[in-house]
């Protein structure tokens, strides 16, 4: 019997198609239904113009959102590169602005895993955040992960003239007299900014009212803006973080006494609604160790190196275990958005 080739060839094609379909279905089940060529069902996130693949879960890629005061921008950028070597599956996504601006964003519902502030008062406000209710009986919620808050860094407030010191600025006592005479232009931060809070305390210490001496003040919005105005000669002097003065290579003529400012502390904490509390606490722990401490000292900060007992051991990096890398190094570098400045 002679078979018709017109029947055999289509029949063979059908067999191959069915076999291929069964093979594809089996592979799809083994990979968990992954799409876009990425295992684990993750998709590429191109926000901000950078392609980033973000996974969840231990041993997979995790993105940590870190809100940080602009005064920390330089050391944190360097630390992110080092942290990738220690934890290659962790991406650090920074948002930089003044502490007051970041605090407002968090209270308004913005998400972050870690907050690095330039004043304890902002942390206090988040620990006792009002979530509604009448003024006489407000509802209060702790927006920080309990027992995760630490004092990470410390600096000083200093009085800094531009190069050459054309106004002959000597110290804060003389500055108070010049303020009263209205014969000075001083760069300070905004009241709800980073260094501005401490500048206000110094003015109050010398019994000066910001409103009464407003004509003598020129304002920066953080991130070294006050220091830049001094360096450019737009102000006779500035009341700055010592770290900003160092970054702009300005020489201080006086330090504010601690009784005027209190300790100038930079606290950090994990947020209560963090989706990755273990990874966030591990990064916060890393910031207290070498080599991170060296980058903070390089920027002029006093690094408060002693590990606080209140951080639960289960959250510390050394108890978290080794984190396997899952991508090529050129695709897993931590990304650093441009610094934002807030009012």
Walk me through what this model shows.
This protein is of the alpha/beta class and 343 residues long. It folds into 2 domains: 44-154 and 264-331, 3-Layer(aba) Sandwich (D-Maltodextrin-Binding Protein, domain 2); 157-255, D-Maltodextrin-Binding Protein, domain 2 (3-Layer(aba) Sandwich), CATH 3.40.190. Helices cover 33% and strands 19% of the residues. The chain contains 11 helices and 15 strands. The protein has a 6-stranded mixed beta sheet. Strands 11-10-12-9-13 form a 5-stranded mixed beta sheet. A hairpin with a 6-residue loop joins β1 (44-45) and β2 (52-53). The longest helix is centred in the N-terminal third of the chain and has 26 residues, at 5-30. The protein starts with a helix and ends in a 40-residue tail after the last strand. Mean pLDDT is 76; it is low at 1-57 and 306-343.
Give a quick account of the main beta sheet: strands, pairing sense, barrel closure. 6 strands, mixed
Looking at the structure, the CATH topology of the largest domain is: D-Maltodextrin-Binding Protein, domain 2
The appropriate CATH architecture of the largest domain is: 3-Layer(aba) Sandwich
Our count of helices gives 11
The structure class reads: alpha/beta
